[in-house]
Amino acid sequence: MHIVNARLRTAPGLHSIFCQNGRIHRIIAQSEPLAAQPGTLDASSNLVIPPLVEPHIHLDAVATAGQPEWNRSGTLFEGIERWGQRKATITHQDTKARAHAGIRMLAEHGIQQVRTHVDVTDPTLAALKALLEVRDEARSLIDLQIVAFPQEGIESFEGGRALMERALDMGADVVGGIPHFENTREQGVSSVHFLMDQAERRGLKVDVHCDETDDPHSRFLEVLAEQARVRGMGAMVTASHTTAMGSYDNAYCSKLMRLLKAANLSFVSCPTESIHLQGRFDTFPKRRGVTRVAELDRAGLNVCFGQDSLQDPWYPLGNGNILRILDAGLHICHMMGYDDLRRCLDLVTDHSARALGLGEGYGLVEGRPASFVILEAASDYEAVRTQAKALWSVRNGEVIMQRAPQQVQLLPGR
Ligand SMILES: [Zn+2]
Q1: Which of 18, 31, 37, 305 has the most CB atoms around its CB within 10 Å?
Q2: Catalytic residue among 54, 152, 155, 212
Q3: Is 133 a catalytic residue?
Q4: Would the pTM count as exceeding 0.85?
Q5: Where are the domains of the chain?
């Protein structure tokens, strides 16, 4: 495969990209636009970027909103309760069908790398068994990392530790956690020690739902970061949500930042989900309920955006389009300055890839997989301003998605 007239984020002008055996062979600057020949893919001066990444989603819960009841309070905790009801009716085929539907939504928007959390607080581990099959079946569209996620706790759920170990034995890729949901502070702390022990012993990555609350006293991020620092595992560890950081006072947070930098872990913020679920116990003024994305980014820490949900008990909307999340996130996190806008795609590409530990398996670099997306825009700024769509998605040298550009005509009245 050979792409012409590609605009890159990393160099001015137009480029040709030559692919061979599913890898990027050469990237060459063009002195002028080239006419597309048969067999070449014309990027038409649009951006060619590495595939979009979904670093935080719950594929086992896709399309379960309102089943059997809607989350009427809009809180995280009612979401967990509603999910508990739905979980009792789950079947293998039902989970697989919904997860595949979710993956198609993501693939339609140029996403090829996905990390899903799967609830393992279920003695039958039904959802995990289904998702392990989906991971293989969906390989032509996406690479899927599965997090063993203890939705109802490791310490406060009956048999929680044993379920985590079984899930990891069965082939989950990443160790999860939910310390702020454990019954006591002590259980939260010991759950973090347990999950870090598991990850270190097995050589696995870690992604913890951490301090997903407005409670300023929820301080498990410091525990996770210190564990990552002491064990030298920062590059393997992601803290998801950390919404309590939005409620921490600045004196505590400035001390915490020192530790976060020393630990060098990654962060995922899910801004649409968090602004929906958090702030629910406030009247006015009402907190935004999101973590300090801009501050983490300015401090040089790795931070990215995720969708979290596609139509589930926690969030009734969602369509797979991570650029919708980017748009909302830039608004919610006060990141609309020009310097942010001109590099905003980092938050849904390179930063997410780093959180997922994709290394040399990702990026528009010679020798790496020929996997990329053509966005209908000439720059990051235009991509977010026009709510650009992915026009083509190429995976290991094969086109896996193509979208016709939208045609609009103005018809002035007579
Ligand atoms: Zn989540």
Answers
A1: 305
A2: 212
A3: no
A4: yes
A5: 2-50+364-402, 52-361
